[in-house]
Amino acid sequence: MTRIIVMTSGKGGVGKSTCTANLGMALAQRNQRVAVVDADFGLRNLDLLLGLENRIVYTALDVLAGDCTVDKALVKDKRQPTLGLLAAAQNRNKEAITPEQMKALVAGLAPSHDFILIDCPAGIEMGFQNAIAPAKEAIVVTTPEISAVRDADRVIGLLEANDVKFTKLLINRIKPKMVQEDQMMSVRDVLDILAVPLLGVVPDDERVIVSSNRGEPLVLEKQLSLAGVAFNNIARRLLGEEVPLIDLTATHDDLFSRLRRFLRGS
Amino acid sequence: MVSDNSASTALNESVVDPDMPLADSSVPAYPDTPQKPDAEGSLDGLPPAELPSPAPAPPVDPRTQLRLRSDGDHLVLLLPSGPQIEAEGGALAWGELLQHFKQRLNGGEPFWQPNTVVHLAARDRLLDARQLQALEDVLTAAQLTLKRVATSRRQTAMAAVAAGYSVDQLGAEDTLVQSPPAPGQPLAEPLYLQTTVRSGVEIRHPGTIVVLGDANPGSSLVAGGDILVWGRLRGTAHAGSGGDRDRYIMALQMQPTQLRLADLVARAPDGPSTQYLPEVAYVGDGAIRIAQAQAFARQHFDATLGQGAQPTDAF
CA nearest B282: which of B31, B48, B26? Predict the structure, then answer.
């Protein structure tokens, strides 16, 4: 049974594509046959994050036009041959395809894959409707900011109404230090509002930017960063393993910060 | 000796911000606020269920969403009257209507048996075959069977016949009557929802709304009757939208973005609150007030008890 998962958030810039690239890669490293589908027509960038830009020959639109088969359009990753990317067309916009066509595309990929991750564009318009149409599950990505959480809440409601029944939450770019100092919403605060099962928490990490620019997902690094470990754990949870959340506070709970918290009276 | 007559001062810890003007003068600041100056402001402790029907012609019409009503051995699905919505991009409006209806069905505790028959009261709304099909899909997912369509539009009737439903075609004079005779009672049966009402979701209902779950920021509840939230109320709530001030908004945790009772508006004070006790919002002295549920119940629902002799603490 192929698991078709849409990665969505409502708000832009919370890290949907980064999470898709890293999760796809982490799943592929665990011998899963993974296809990542960029549904962001006109503003594609999943190919950049995976470093596959210069190898794209056909896009999803070419498949729909009948110019090539879906397997031929799939760009295989050299580092992880079980990972394939179906790129969006950059020269068109979101109205170029319909939810039915998106379903057909994914149905073509389903038999030969274990996981299909759909990278959803920001917003709740046509592009969103296209991206969620084929999905059975959803991962809602949010950051601990009220605007992102509000949009995530809206999106979860829309997913429920559109028969995507299994929604999980990924909280991205959390800064443990700020949470401890009560300057940022905590994981618990976010869960309190959204009330969906938590899939994982990814700490804010400057190395994410470096890895994006290089086109090498974090999980490929030999010396994994904390964010890379978090992505690996999320992939393991997706595969059904029970992995505890990493303790992000450990590095910040030194004598100095304890003293400061004590002085602030909390 | 405990006297409940003195409770009013303790109750009236108003949530209304000091810089928030009183209700009547706040109308310009909220142009969408319904105005119903002749609404009664009395709070004589009547239980909500026994209150007379609210004023006619509600300023905020809660009947702009699809809703189910039970009628003997079947359910009636009421469509809101169409023309004005069709005028501004019918397809989109229809999609949103259907979306709201689905969200409501998902959250509603089914009060019907599987495979209950549904009669569609389409009134003067124009429906094509695809819209009928979409509606049937939604109903089928909720284990309901669409059997009969009542409409006053010829094209809708044709589409319904082609799709194989029984059709009641109503006369043209029915089109002119805005509200149908059947749902004439202004206060409908309560709407019970077991769900999280999320941002962007708007629940409109002519009767009382009961939510078992949270109402998140960005959500909106509009009821002709009372609103009860067994959870956190963090969105906007408007009770007595027909202009009835004798309505209540109750929540286990009252952290609303905005409260509206009939034609009055209030917002929560800035800054996080530390205490979370069940609270009730009501209209007192022409403004929205908030009281702790226990104290409120003592004063308003047990009014007859208050008239008798009060037990001492020793008992």
Answer: B48
Q: Answer whether B214 sits within 8 Å of A157, measured CB to CB.
A: no
Number of folded domains that form chain A: 1
User: At B9, is the pLDDT very low, low, confident or very high (cuts 50, 70, 90)?
Assistant: very low
- For B179-205, the pLDDT digits (tens) are 444 444 456 788 889 989 999 888 988
The domain that contains A237 carries what CATH number?
3.40.50.300
Q: Which residue of A has its CA nearest to B197?
A: A157
Domain with A77 in it: 3-264
Rounded mean pLDDT of B258-286? 85
Comparing C-alpha atoms, which of A119, A93, A110 is closest to residue A38? A119
List of chain B residues whose C-beta atoms are within 8 Å of the C-beta of residue A182: none
Considering only CB atoms, B201 lies closest to which of A157, A163, A195, namely: A157
**Shortest Cα distance, chain A CAs vs residue B135, angstroms:** 13
- Where do we find the tokens 């490929």? A220
Q: What's the CA gap between A168 and A248, in Å, rounded?
A: 20
Which chain A residue has the Cα nearest residue B233? A193
Domains and CATH numbers, chain B: 4-53+186-303 (2.160.20.70), 67-178 (3.30.70)
Query: Do B259 and B265 touch, CB atoms closer than 8 A?
Result: yes
The whole-angstrom separation of Cα B241 and Cα A65 is 52
ipTM rounded to 2 decimals: 0.76
Judge contact between B246 and B270, C-beta under 8 A.
no
- The answer to whether B103 contacts A193, with C-beta atoms less than 8 Å apart, is no
Model confidence pLDDT, tens digit, residues B131-159: 888 888 888 888 888 888 888 888 888 88
Cβ-nearest to B199 among A157, A161, A163: A157
pTM score, whole prediction = 0.73
Q: For the packed helices B129-141 and B90-107, what is the interaxial angle rounded to 10 degrees?
A: 10
Nearest to A9 by CA among A186, A154, A146, A144: A154
User: How many separate helices (H) and strands (E) can be counted in chain A?
Assistant: 12, 8
Contact B106 A151 (CB under 8 A): no
In A, minimum Cα distance to B103 occurs at: A161
pLDDT computed for residue B313 by the predictor: 62
Tell me whether residues B103 and A161 touch, CB distance under 8 A: yes
Tell me how close the Cα of A190 comes to any Cα of chain B, in angstroms. 12
Q: What's residue B77's pLDDT?
A: 85
